[in-house]
Write a sequence for this structure.
């Protein structure tokens, strides 16, 4: 088993300790060990917003690198980790890297920074296993992923990546004495990868429950002399009891006996951070999950996780006797952002320039703005542009399959709707030329197009799952928050080609994990196709994407037999082709969905302050501007 991998030479940023003879630690010896974490970098190296085409953005690993350098200089003993989702996420990684053959720029930057260990995130599998293995060949750091195993044919399964690492490091105690410390690192990824990237991973990879995997490994690591066990886990914090194959399992994972620290990720949360309604076991003040020290460093280099552990020698081993957890932001409202690391900026410059040349190519033209500020509250023209492109691309395939007698619908969701991405995390494309960067703004994920045949009854359930993103609203009440913060915007599928109304007076039918709450709860009303009510037994083809077809979040997987057209083309390419071949985009929505009117009822919602540039749209929905929230979102009141 490839476990004891060599550690990288942390050249440049790390002052290497002089070799000394390790002392036998005396009882009561104390040392401080600093664990640094980045996570969900998603290809954001430069402080550059590729969608908006703007430099000086308040994120990027080049900025985090400056925090890393400072944090290392403050202490004698530190290690640097990344918790995954580093290889995918910007046009730099998703367009330029995919067309080139050179070294992946993210791996280049991470080599420079001297990471001690890296875990894989779900998005690192987006371009397939062969691609991933090729990209990682360039890495000077070891990679661990314990709960994804290769299927080797028959019943066999073998580790594909190191299930854990044992890092031997020389550290110094508080009196300056040198010691050898053996730090075990377990990499974990949401088991949902085999669903989300089924097209790439089926027949090749099996995934297992993260918590069970860690629990099974801990005793083995202690046997192998681990002084400290770190879960480097691409998983976030979720409220409620643990369940098998839990996606955001940081909390139960932290509860596994023997795990000394959790470096979490995936959900793009910041921990410790402001958390208005912290689930049981989440203690932001103490910096613990289930009593175990933990950090989570936001996303795209927004934060550096700094976890200081105080270890004391007792009973022949090291014990954690104190800790301090912190998520240091690269930008805040009170100070200028930390400057980016010039070395990283220089190294990325050629790939960045190439990316800009590619994404600035004009493809077409839009006569109105395309934005996501209102995508959660109205039938949205930007979403309809995506569904129109999907439908047009899928139509020829249906004719081939002899299914062109069925109505063809199309679905998509708004991908950039604030949330943990902050008040600037919205799509906002002004009227004028439409470029490749706008296409990747409208469709940031590398999902592929596919078509599924479903019944009218399934269509209704699909929309019920989408409608869980809203809170239940009491008729006649004022200023009730519209959106359920537990449900991300990208779970809000709209289905184009139908008309329907969403009744907010009814309870949600499903939980955010897709479990049925109440068989009698229905929010979708007046579901019609071409003006005719949709019958439960009617059949439709829906143009969707590979990710949604395989389930995930509130959505149920669609049976393989129902997938009639697995097109394999990236939706982004389909959208770019559509813009190139159609005339000017009118940016006006055809009728689709709406809320059931509730006279005398007001709701509030937060969106990007950029919406204020479109007063006519504010007026059309009769929105009232309530000013900015503390986090900088624009708050609006909307009559239902
Ligand atoms: Mg992830
Ligand atoms: Mn991520």
């Amino acid at each position: 088993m490839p476990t004891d991998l060599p550690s990288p030479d942390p050249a440049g940023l790390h002052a290497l300790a002089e070799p000394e003879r390790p002392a036998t630690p005396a009882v009561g010896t104390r040392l401080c060990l600093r664990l640094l974490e980045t996570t969900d970098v998603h290809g954001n190296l430069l402080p550059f917003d590729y969608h908006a085409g703007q430099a000086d953005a308040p994120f990027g690993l080049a900025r985090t690198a400056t925090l890393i350098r400072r944090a290392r200089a403050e202490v004698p003993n530190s290690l640097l980790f990344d918790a995954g989702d580093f290889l995918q996420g910007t046009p730099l990684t998703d367009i330029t890297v995919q067309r080139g053959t050179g070294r992946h720029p993210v791996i280049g930057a991470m080599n420079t920074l001297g990471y001690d260990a890296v875990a894989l995130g779900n998005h690192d599998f987006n371009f397939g296993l062969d691609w991933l293995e090729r990209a990682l060949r360039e890495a000077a750091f070891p990679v661990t992923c314990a709960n994804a195993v290769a299927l080797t044919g028959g019943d066999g399964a073998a580790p594909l990546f190191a299930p854990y690492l044992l890092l031997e490091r020389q550290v110094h105690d508080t009196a300056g004495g040198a010691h050898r410390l053996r730090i075990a690192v377990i990499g974990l990824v949401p088991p949902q990868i085999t669903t989300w990237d089924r097209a790439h991973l089926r027949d090749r990879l099996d995934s297992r429950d993260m918590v069970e995997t860690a629990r099974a490994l801990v005793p083995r690591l202690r046997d192998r002399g681990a002084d400290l066990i770190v879960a480097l886990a691409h998983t976030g914090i979720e409220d409620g009891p643990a369940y098998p194959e839990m996606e955001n399992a940081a909390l139960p994972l932290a509860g596994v006996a023997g795990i000394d620290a959790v470096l979490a990720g995936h959900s793009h949360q910041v921990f410790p951070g402001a958390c208005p309604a912290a689930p049981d076991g989440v203690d932001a003040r103490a910096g613990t999950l289930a009593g175990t020290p933990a950090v989570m460093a936001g996303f795209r280099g927004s934060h550096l996780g700094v976890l200081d552990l105080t270890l004391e020698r007792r009973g022949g081993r090291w014990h954690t006797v104190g800790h301090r957890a912190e998520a240091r932001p690269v930008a805040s409202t009170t100070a200028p952002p930390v400057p980016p690391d010039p070395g990283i900026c220089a190294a990325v410059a050629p790939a960045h320039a190439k990316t800009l040349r590619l994404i600035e190519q004009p493809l077409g033209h839009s006569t109105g703005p395309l934005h996501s500020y209102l995508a959660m509250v109205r039938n949205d023209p930007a979403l309809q542009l995506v569904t129109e492109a999907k439908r047009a691309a899928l139509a020829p395939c249906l004719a081939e399959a002899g299914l062109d007698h069925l109505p063809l619908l199309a679905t998509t969701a708004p991908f950039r709707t604030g949330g943990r991405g902050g008040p600037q995390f919205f799509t906002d494309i002004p009227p004028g030329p439409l470029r490749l960067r706008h296409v990747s703004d409208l469709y940031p994920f590398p999902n592929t197009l596919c078509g599924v045949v479903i019944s009218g009854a399934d269509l209704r359930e699909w929309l019920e799952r989408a409608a869980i993103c809203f809170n239940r609203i009491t008729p006649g009440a004022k200023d009730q928050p519209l959106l359920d913060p537990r449900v991300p915007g990208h779970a809000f599928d709209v289905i184009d080609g139908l008309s329907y109304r969403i009744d907010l007076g009814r309870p949600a039918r499903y939980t955010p994990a897709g479990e049925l709450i109440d068989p009698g709860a229905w929010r979708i009303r007046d579901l019609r196709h071409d003006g005719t009510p949709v019958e439960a037994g009617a059949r439709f083809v829906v143009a969707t994407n590979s990710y949604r077809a395989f389930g995930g979040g509130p959505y149920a997987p669609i049976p393989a037999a129902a997938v009639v057209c697995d097109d394999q083309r990236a939706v982004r390419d389909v959208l770019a082709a559509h813009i190139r071949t159609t005339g000017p985009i009118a940016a006006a929505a055809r009728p689709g969905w709406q809320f059931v009117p509730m006279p005398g009822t007001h709701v509030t919602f937060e969106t990007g302050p950029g919406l204020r540039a479109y007063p006519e749209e504010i007026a059309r929905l009769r929105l009232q501007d309530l000013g900015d929230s503390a986090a900088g979102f624009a708050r609006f009141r909307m009559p239902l």
The chain is about 20% helix and 25% strand. The mean pLDDT is 92. The domain at 362-595 is CATH 3.90.780.10 (5'-nucleotidase;  domain 2). The two ends are 60 Å apart (CA to CA).
